[in-house]
Amino acid sequence: MKVGYGLGTTITLTTFGELNDVAIDAAMTLVAEYEDRLTVNRQVSEVMSINHAAGDHAVVVSPATYQLVKRAVLASRENFGFNALIGPLVKLWAIGFKAANVPDESDIAARKQLIDPMQVELNDDQLTVKLLQPGMELDLGGIAKGEIADRIADLWRAYGVASGIIDLGGNLVFVGESPRRVDGQWVIGVQDPQAERHDEVGRTVLPACSAVTSGIYERFLIVAGKQYHHLLDSRTGHPLQTKLAGVTVFARQSVVAETEAKRLFFAGEPIPNWEKQPDIYGAVFVYQDGRVVPVGVHLQA
């Protein structure tokens, strides 16, 4: 096992039955390479090149970056709540920072013009991305960890890792068969989004998969006795109004689990027949009043 820092979070990589750390070291290198391409916390990266060129010209990016940008933009265009262009609105509210405030509706309306995912031009042949309006910003933070976790899992399989756990700050991927059960399945704890990390509402048993939680956490703003959560809804320009505290999704791919966790969280309740999709195992909804509702999975105390 190795613990490191990257993607703005603590990374824990564990393999079982391995005699050396070659596969783990290769995974850490892969994380660093992805972060160099995707980060918006530095002035230089492929994503920042796109942002710097907003309203001016298209930018050529690497195939891996292009495919992730395309996935994020197409998901944003579904208009279920996830929006990879929401940065200008987040900066306006600034919840969790010293400048936190409740903006004027006119300012919110103006920023909403800068977060429209239809204003992104994608060229599959040239692998170019163009943000059509000056001031637009692309941020893949809401989907990148899932993609990177999946690529680590692919890397480990290529190295012949029979069993392991990838933890990218809460994006979990269970690789191969669990060494702790005869049937090879994994016992997976479901995070209580209203408690400390590793406090669980229950456990479920599943084959190799990814588990991702989306929810309202500690950042909020209180003005005139009203509390505003940091999770903004790009459809309204305001913090999401929900009775949910969080939802955990179990899926074969981590990037799918990450996207679907946001879909269900913004829906605020189970979506009929959602769990019947291919490569989806199920979800667990945790409400602010303490109710826990599993969908498609069996939850044990």
Question: How is this structure best summarized?
Answer:
Helices cover 28% and strands 28% of the residues. It is α+β, with helices and mostly antiparallel strands and 301 residues long. Among the domains are: 46-131, T-fold (Orthogonal Bundle); 177-295, T-fold (Roll).
How would you characterize this protein structure?
GO terms for molecular function: metal ion binding; transferase activity. Keywords: FAD, Flavoprotein, Lipoprotein, Magnesium, Metal-binding, Transferase. This is FAD:protein FMN transferase. Its cofactor is Mg(2+); Mn(2+). Its EC number is 2.7.1.180. The structure is a single chain. The chain is of the alpha+beta class. Among the domains are: 46-131, Orthogonal Bundle (T-fold), CATH 1.10.3980.10; 177-295, T-fold (Roll), CATH 3.10.520. The protein has helices at 22-38, 46-52, 63-77, 87-93, 105-112, 144-159, 254-267, and strands at residues 2-6, 9-15, 59-60, 120-123, 128-131, 163-168, 171-176, 186-191, 200-206, 210-215, 220-223, 226-229, 232-233, 238-239, 244-251, 280-287, 292-295. It has an 8-stranded antiparallel sheet. A 3-stranded antiparallel sheet has the order 3-5-4, with helices on one face. Helix 1 (22-38) runs antiparallel to helix 6 and helix 6 runs antiparallel to helix 7 (254-267).
